[in-house]
Amino acid sequence: MNITISDLSKMTGLAKSTISGVLNNKEGFSEKTRQKVLQTAAQYGYVPNEIARGLTSRFTKTIGLLIKDITNPFYNHITKGVQEVAAEHGYTVFLCSSGEDHKMEVEQIQAMVGKRVDGLIIAPLLEEVSFDHIYALKRKKLPFVLLGNIPGLDCDTVEFDDYSGGKQVTEHLLQKGHTRIGFVNGLNTSKAGKLRFAAFQDTLFAHSITTDPKYIFKEAKSLSDGYAIGNQLIAMEDRPTALVCFDDVIAMGVIKAFDNAGLKVPDNLSVTGFDDIELAIFPLTTVSIPTLEAGKALAQTLIDRIMQERVSKSKHIVFEQKLIPRASVKQL
Amino acid sequence: MNITISDLSKMTGLAKSTISGVLNNKEGFSEKTRQKVLQTAAQYGYVPNEIARGLTSRFTKTIGLLIKDITNPFYNHITKGVQEVAAEHGYTVFLCSSGEDHKMEVEQIQAMVGKRVDGLIIAPLLEEVSFDHIYALKRKKLPFVLLGNIPGLDCDTVEFDDYSGGKQVTEHLLQKGHTRIGFVNGLNTSKAGKLRFAAFQDTLFAHSITTDPKYIFKEAKSLSDGYAIGNQLIAMEDRPTALVCFDDVIAMGVIKAFDNAGLKVPDNLSVTGFDDIELAIFPLTTVSIPTLEAGKALAQTLIDRIMQERVSKSKHIVFEQKLIPRASVKQL
DNA sequence: TTGTAAGCGTTATCAG
DNA sequence: CTGATAACGCTTACAA
């Protein structure tokens, strides 16, 4: 069905190794043979079987990418970055989503290992979860780079400074005169959420401000979660004056709820997010995160590691987060 | 580095074929051997080399997905759908983006064919472009399904009824009393755009309404394109009263421009989009498109075709588009 | 400059 | 019930 190198060998009367050599641009073939091979290959639409090639060469020119949800702007920008540099270097990428489910994460990684990817980029669940599968990778000496880090695990990482981001928004809110501030956190399995929240609490504590526990929400992960929380807030008589959301998507959900109820942001509630997603046309004060660049860095780091045959020591890249003040926070 | 079946063979003292048989749940092995194999395999963390497996079995359990831009909600929802169904059936998916570039499209498909995917899902450029690479697939008898259709090419397809969508919005606008209506089209390579625009023109024509050519824009593909067009519109003294945009992302760009200029939608301009993306918290009148479902249908159709060994005749699935009236259109 | 042969990790076939 | 052996399509010594 698919033409092979031995087919070409028979057709041209040349040996398989000759065909292979020419096709791989090796030196030392007469122009005549070279032409003959190239021509008949083109004529019959020969496409080398990379999979057979991978068997001998130990390289599949494939990398795996495991993210949480392709539908989330944060992850699809990372994906785009990975994609771009992978393609530049001739790699194809397997895309897998864990959907924030640990079992799925383990399975998908396993599947990609089985398919003998040359390396893996993983955005793992980082809290309240076992890392056995990641350690297994390390033991196998399969190159991989993590988005985020696992304490005590020495490997390449790309990270964002979430603590700083959390601190920046909180201080901004404080400066604007807010003292009754709520926080909507993401999933418990997210380390970014843990760090942002820690920064939030620490910063408030440093200013001797305490938060009412009823202003703290958890486990939000979608626009509809944000929407539901927005409605809870609307129903409270002593609402906070400001709300820090784990990401822009959630923030948009909250804003939508207020909008639907005829309330205004920031007049009735100041709202902030994280990610600075382009689609949020609402002038949302947020913390920008260089996701596209991080994706590129992720892929570049992995490819470097694959080439170097894992000699050099681990690389750790940290991207800064930066507050983007816009109009969703009111000066009190 | 990676443990193989022959390693297991040596360790257990059993033959390779025995190991292979047990691992693949074949009948006819004593419970004793079975246990022995399974146990040592687990002990040493054996992961079958799918790539070697693929060499003999002719199946790689991998499918390829080629889209235009993962960052666009339309495509990432399709991707999510494909992903889900693929994972359910034990397939891993290669994700490639053409970035709306024909050369890239050809190359990426070529790469995936080289990696011997079992089948391909392609969202190809459909206008002003050659289809040689698609015909080559057909000749190779490699299963594939298209998002959209190519006239004269008999293959599985999943489509949206873009003409109907275009007609629905246009009629809606007419009903609301608009007669000076503009249109922002997507790229020339998009058939969806061609169809939506044709419906737009036909519908206006049927109502004996003509559009001013200066109200027609082309080649928009991003929020910033929409933004720029919004600004052009703002600068016009005789603006249209309504604007049909190729998709929600572009529409959001237009709205953003108006917002920034202190103008209001729909008071100063009625705007509509396509896709009904969740993130558009602005109450945008749009045409909803079941992208997630389409993604699932795409994957299911492909997998069916792979199993059936391409006997049955081509399947064509058409998803309807549906107008979702919201508040971005003003009653005149 | 070209050809032969072995090997990559599996599965399949066919004896034992 | 188990074990050799060939085959999948390619690369790579090594030989001619």
From TrEMBL, chains A, B:
Q: Which residues form the HTH lacI-type domain?
A: 3-57
Alphabetical UniProt keywords: DNA-binding, Transcription, Transcription regulation
Q: Which residues form a coiled coil?
A: none
Q: Check the record and name the CDD domains matching this protein.
A: HTH_LacI, PBP1_LacI_sugar_binding-like
Query: What InterPro entries does the database record attribute to this sequence?
Result: HTH_LacI, LacI/GalR-like_sensor, Lambda_DNA-bd_dom_sf, Peripla_BP_I
This chain's protein is named LacI family transcriptional regulator
- Pfam families, alphabetized: LacI (PF00356), Peripla_BP_3 (PF13377)
Q: Which Gene3D superfamilies match?
A: 3.40.50.2300, lambda repressor-like DNA-binding domains
